[in-house]
Amino acid sequence: MGIVRETYTKCMNVKQILRTLLVKFEEKDIFMSNEYQQEIKERMQADTINIPQVFVDGQHIGDAECIERLNESGELRKMLKPYKCLESPYMCKVCGGYRLLPCPSCGGSKKSIHRNHFTAEFVALKCMNCDEVGLVKCHNC
């Protein structure tokens, strides 16, 4: 969400609305994972998607403009009332809420170094523990 300023601003506005309504939410940064990109494309059944999109219990609620309209009319508060949580929103201390960490095996380089037993050389192989950008899901989340 931090790549495009307009998208970042919309995401921050939606997050602020949800925090104001005291709702815990799970945030997925689709720019960080192809898996997340595929998931949103399948859920939305579209190739191009405006970000952010909000889902409640798997049901699509809408994009940033829709969330802002629902919030201004008071409908969003009614819709999310069952999900209200009085304790402070949880922020993972390990990943900072990003839900992804650099791979502990390769350090995010996507390369795993192995020694070739027939020669004294090392061979770089693709790391099998992380995704295409060198990240793994946070073990704490």
From TrEMBL:
All residue ranges annotated as the Glutaredoxin domain in the record: 6-61
PROSITE patterns listed in its UniProt record: GLUTAREDOXIN_2 (PS51354)
SUPFAM superfamilies with a match to the protein in the record: Thioredoxin-like
Record-linked Gene3D superfamilies: Glutaredoxin
Domain of life: Eukaryota
Pfam families the UniProt entry points to: Glutaredoxin (PF00462), GRXCR1-2_C (PF23733)
InterPro entries, A to Z: Glutaredoxin, GRXCR1, Thioredoxin-like_sf
GO biological process: sensory perception of sound
Protein name from the UniProt record: Glutaredoxin domain-containing protein
Organism this protein belongs to: Anopheles christyi
